[in-house]
Amino acid sequence: MPKLDFDVITLGHGSGGVLTNKLLDSGVFDLLGNDILDERHDGAFLELHGKTAFSTDSFLVSPIFFPGGNIGELAVNGTVNDLAMCGAMPRYLSLSFIIEEGLPVKEFWEILVAIKFACERAGVQVVTGDTKVVEKGKGDKLFINTSGVGPIHPKATIGAKNIQMGDRIIISGNIAAHGMAIMSVREGLEFDSEIRSDTTNLNHSVIGLIEKFGPDIHLLTDPTRGGVATVLKEIARSTGVGMDIFQKDLPIDDQVANACELLGLDPLYVANEGLFIAFVSEARADAVLAELRKDENGRNAQIIGSVVKEHPKQVILESAIGGKRVVNMLPGEQLPRIC
């Protein structure tokens, strides 16, 4: 951490003057500097060719530090993954902070370091951004907005319109870890081992699959807020297809399942930050699954269901004991401030 003559963020650090420049010079520009960001212009000059994806997201997680990560890497990974779900290769990010006065500089530094490492893992550059400071009581320590751009992979044909009857639904790993990592901290739950967020960048994993299987991957999506259930229901409703999914095939860590049970939460509706769902052609689903399981981010991947003609616009879950129920979208806010 750099030596500074202040320990906490004050309103003056958002003034655009000397204090702002001290904060940015000793943090953002030193850690995240590159040829584009170092121009310090009002915007960034980028070289983009061909079809390009663009995404933006805001992150309000509380607490800002949690087992397995913090709000900084969550912000980078979230936008990188949104681009990856488009079949894009993320290249550039914007990074904007809204800081509540009183935030310890030490915490801000730790978040910047996490952002740097997350960018390096994903292979993206921060090229522009903004910093604002609000009065104490008008924020919650730190809010972050990130936007990202990247070219679409030439073999990617991602879109809900590509879903076909018989498509297999693959999830890349254990569900509900992120939401329960946040909740375990808030509720003071203790387990034999710590529940950790699954936040990570997925772009390298996804691009590897697209490179090998191309048009057999029909749709990609990440089940963040609202969880797996909400994402699948949204797709079923918008496309008109039916889906059957099977509880026995849903991968979940035992301690995460126990935490969900203790808190009365359905893991299907709990947020994830390091997972994706893929709709894959029936003929290549087993091969896609086998390839994904070779990847660190896909070791626990499973085929959890399929697209069917029956019950259009409905997602039906078959329980472990053979019962069936309709899966709907999350009706309200199940977990406050998880991403």
Automatic annotation (TrEMBL):
Gene3D superfamilies cross-referenced by the UniProt entry: PurM-like C-terminal domain, PurM-like, N-terminal domain
A Pfam family recorded for this sequence: AIRS
CDD domains given in the database record: HypE
PurM-like C-terminal domain mapped to chain residues: 166-315
Name of the protein in question: Hydrogenase expression/formation protein HypE
InterPro entries in the record: HypE (IPR011854), PurM-like_C_dom (IPR010918), PurM-like_C_sf (IPR036676), PurM-like_N (IPR016188), PurM-like_N_sf (IPR036921)
UniProt-listed GO biological process terms: protein maturation
Family in the record: Belongs to the HypE family.
Domain of life: Bacteria
Record-annotated PurM-like N-terminal domain positions: 42-150
